[in-house]
């Protein structure tokens, strides 16, 4: 009987021993994963710091590669989103210096997605938009910065400067469009013995809207 009870005792405890072993293995794997994660975070930070030194030295391509390395090493967990936002933004700075503003815009957009209140990414994207003459987009980004923090001097100055440039650009585009329409209009109106000189656009100072006046003899006072 003793042997029987001993066998039952061993049988009843066997699953618990297996479960305990499995739990230990899972715990060890978790610890290993956490250790690797912390190691990767540290290595990513080191790559970023090395990239910063190279950037200061004007070695933008080498710095770009190190920021890319930091992005590869950095874990994808939400708690490291800001880290990745910084790496994307720093790489964008390299891309601007390397004459690749379109790619810089993409990196800044990634940075903003990861950290929506990261003003440096908005400012850098604004700078990249200027490089490709997208002044309205550049101005929009500066305005977003001022919504987040209205005291940033660089953003305040940029808004004033870009507002003037955007207005000038819009006026230039409007003049070019009117010239094209005038050329097209003269082609059509010429068939009827008329030209666009017979029509004069008059702006209402109160509303800013335009009306068109017709003159049979435009050259006469």
UniProtKB/TrEMBL annotation:
Signal peptide annotation: none
TPR repeats: 44-77, 119-152
UniProt-listed SMART domains: TPR
UniProt KW keywords: TPR repeat
One Pfam family it belongs to: TPR_8
PANTHER family: TETRATRICOPEPTIDE REPEAT PROTEIN 1
Protein name (record): Uncharacterized protein
Species this chain originates from: Aphanomyces euteiches
